[in-house]
Amino acid sequence: MIPMTLDEIARACGARLCDVPDPGASVTAPTAVDSREVVPGGLFAATAGARADGHDFAGTAVAAGAVAVLAARPVGVPALVVDDVQRALGLLARHLLGRVSPAVIGLTGSVGKTTTKDLLAQVLERHAATVATDRSFNNELGLPLTVLRADAATRYLVLEMGASRKGDLTYLTGIAPPQVGVVLNVGTAHLERMGTGRADVAAAKGELVEALPADGFALLNADDPYVLGMAGRTEARILLYGTSPRAPVRAENVRMDDRARPAFELVTPAGRAPVELDLIGEHQVSNALAAAAVATALGLDAAETADGLTAARRRSGGRLQIVERPDGVTVIDDAYNANPESMRAGLRAAKALAGSRRTVAVLGGMGQQADVSRARHAEVGRLVAGLRFDVLITVGAGDPLATAEAARSSDQGVAVHTVEDVAEAVKLAGALLEPGDVVFVKASSEFGLGACARALATTSQ
């Protein structure tokens, strides 16, 4: 973050100073919304969440080195008091971008955002100073926090942009107007809040390309018709990517190694070069191509891009994260989140990695699937059976039971078990696992199956 005085911050976000002995004191370190992540010289933003109110930790944050607290009320320590902390963070981030000039890259999609962001950041970091979204901080709070990490040396600012309803991307792009925008895909994530079908999701995701300037780039997935349909919604230059021959940035000769890691020939207008990804699943090719399209739009050649993709490693946990136990059991933790598209991709990747090894799926629910939720969960059950998983354990009542019922009725030989909670899942899976098994764990984050994956990864039966 570039140094800013408390007085400058107050003017930028319309705050009044309260209990501030020195308005000229400078904030020189990043902003945090978790008091445990405060660093000396930083700013602490006190937000009220479902489980805790940051205002209660204002003193702790200042004791940890925060120069002041951005708060909705006086907190007994140096504070910048505003009506709306979230809005103030956005205003502060927009102010910072007025003082620095990185190339802002926004990316969105129903699945694959975080993996693509991580790949792209690792490609660009080899070329110039890059700031990218941490973890999945892609919402109204997370995006400003990322922007506020930028400084005068930052050349590329890679922003993962999430949208759970229409208008979200319009808000985010208002804080950080992108020069480059990439849309990965249109699926059924957040369907409950966006509308009744993919067209409604596409309407929301397309807000990103509408925000692009005429001299910017809209990078669209040629393999997704809903994404292709966004071409008429932007004045920016369009660059297509995908496996389609019509895409200037594309993959040819896609193949998988014995660890289910894809390799391909990257083709761009600037040349071609081989890529070998260190991620599992054929669906990762599309994520890599999205990153390659951004790099191409920014002027990198094919060899630079391919080298960066090949050297890239998984950075974010809970997304096809692999742990090998001493007894030969492979645990695949894909429990950060789930929707039908990511569930299909994960199950197929797990099966490809397993080869002839015995496979166990531990699955919870997929959130925000509206009135088609039970049917979507049943589809997952049929896929588990069709892929010939040996064991299925579903966790929780309601929709996960539809997954179990569908798998059982498919009569493909899968042994189906149902449990009520994570503790039971850990106990049952631990008892059923045999040396050499591959166990795949996935659900939407609110179901808490990440704890199950972590427990299984540290348990050797």
Give descriptors for this structure.
461 residues; Udp-n-acetylmuramoylalanyl-d-glutamate--2,6- Diaminopimelate Ligase, Chain: A, domain 1; UDP-N-acetylmuramoyl-L-alanine:D-glutamate ligase; Protein-Tyrosine Phosphatase, Chain A; 9-stranded mixed sheet; 6-stranded mixed sheet
Describe the structure.
- GO terms for molecular function: UDP-N-acetylmuramoyl-tripeptide-D-alanyl-D-alanine ligase activity.
- This is UDP-N-acetylmuramoyl-tripeptide--D-alanyl-D-alanine ligase.
- Belongs to the MurCDEF family. MurF subfamily.
- Its EC number is 6.3.2.10.
- Helix 5 (142-147) links the parallel strand 9 and strand 10.
- This protein has helices at residues 6-13, 58-63, 85-97, 113-125, 142-147, 168-175, 191-194, 198-205, 207-210, 225-228, 284-297, 302-311, 340-354, 373-386, 399-409, 422-432, 449-457, and strands at residues 4-5, 16-18, 26-27, 31-32, 43-45, 68-71, 79-81, 103-108, 130-132, 156-160, 180-183, 217-221, 237-242, 249-256, 262-268, 271-276, 321-324, 330-333, 359-363, 391-395, 415-419, 438-442.
- The protein is globular.
- It folds into 3 domains: 4-83, Udp-n-acetylmuramoylalanyl-d-glutamate--2,6- Diaminopimelate Ligase, Chain: A, domain 1 (3-Layer(aba) Sandwich), CATH 3.40.1390; 100-311, 3-Layer(aba) Sandwich (UDP-N-acetylmuramoyl-L-alanine:D-glutamate ligase), CATH 3.40.1190.10; 321-457, Protein-Tyrosine Phosphatase, Chain A (Alpha-Beta Complex).
- By secondary structure, the chain is of the alpha/beta class.
- Strands 9-10-8-11-12-13-14-15-16 form a 9-stranded mixed β-sheet. Strands 17-18-22-19-20-21 form a 6-stranded mixed β-sheet, with helices on both faces. Strands 2-7-6-5-4 form a 5-stranded mixed β-sheet.
- It is built from 17 helices and 22 strands.
- Helices cover 34% and strands 21% of the residues.
- The model has no long low-confidence stretch (mean pLDDT 95).
